[in-house]
Amino acid sequence: MNEMTKIRQNFPILQEKIQLSSCSQSAMHKDIEEAVNTYLDAWKTKGMDWGGWMQACEHARKEFAEMINAEVDEVAIVSSVSHAVSSIAASLDPTDRNKVLITDFDFPTVGHVWQSFMDQYQIQFLDSHQDGTLNLEDYKQNIDEQTLVVNTSHISFYNGFKQNLKEIAKEVHQKGAYFFVDAYQSLGQTPIDVKEMNVDFLASGLQKYALGAPGIAFLYVKKDIAEQLTPKVTGWFGQDNPFAFDIKNITYAEGAKRFDSGTFPMINGFAAEAGLTILNQYNMEEIEEHLQHLSKATMEEADHYGLTIKSPRDVSLKGSNTAIYAENASEVEQQMAQRGYIVSARNDVIRIAPHFYNTEADVRSAVQELSKLMK
Q1: pTM of the full predicted structure?
Q2: Average pLDDT of the chain, as a whole number
Q3: Among 3.40.50.10140, 1.10.860.10, 3.40.640.10, 3.30.420.40, what is the CATH number of 49-279?
């Protein structure tokens, strides 16, 4: 039995279907199901288990910190990336600088959150080129002395375009601004080192390449920045001692933990703990190398059948997701599912987004089936 066969046995759906939708929802690992059932069993038999629930969420926080090379107290537990961005937007002081630069290929939630603060911030969208990419010069021309935050995605949800965060961070910081990264599409498929990349804020959920479920996310805040901020989106878990039940006083927790808010999404925390633990057992560089190989195979097959690729051709400039043009993408997604292929539609593309458990045969056969529907 080879290594890939062993890996695939942990994902029951792969015995019957080909799931290539990690840009939306990854396949369920057996350990995730077991973790969720552990929560449910405790609820069923014990009534409640605060100690066990907290332990699972705190361990998930630790595993996330390890994955991005952060300290545990630099990580907050939140409910979503929307929650994370809102927390930071509400906490910054726009007195001296008030411009927020957002790239137009970010997931819409980023734009929605910042625009809800238009009474405080000047919002500028950085438009990508026709091929859906940006370069460093684009940032240089748009970051100025009024820029407070540059908020962008590590990897685009639409076409998989991958940015060099380290070089962008250098430009952002030279202009005295903060750098906020949405890593939802990159966590679990490519190495992330917040220290080397020198990002100030980074947020990600778990349901995509991190193997988890929606309903929980994590927010990294660089330690020296966190201590300077006063959360405006808060709750009892953001306090130094939430179980003191002191309604009359606020004593924020140290570091990024002050951005914890209400009761953790416990059942989601069990799934997050399991997913992150699984991934931290692997070499992320090897996962990325495997996915680049699958990207090449996907694009070769698409070219063979004359399909239009909307993703960057250079695999070093893209993540797992290869976006293929389909005018009626949502309908095609449903038709593919009926044929046993789980892919993901966004706007006018079908996204073929394999993970470390997928094979070259998976992506080639999916493109072949897609080509039949596109005739």
Answers
A1: 0.96
A2: 97
A3: 3.40.640.10
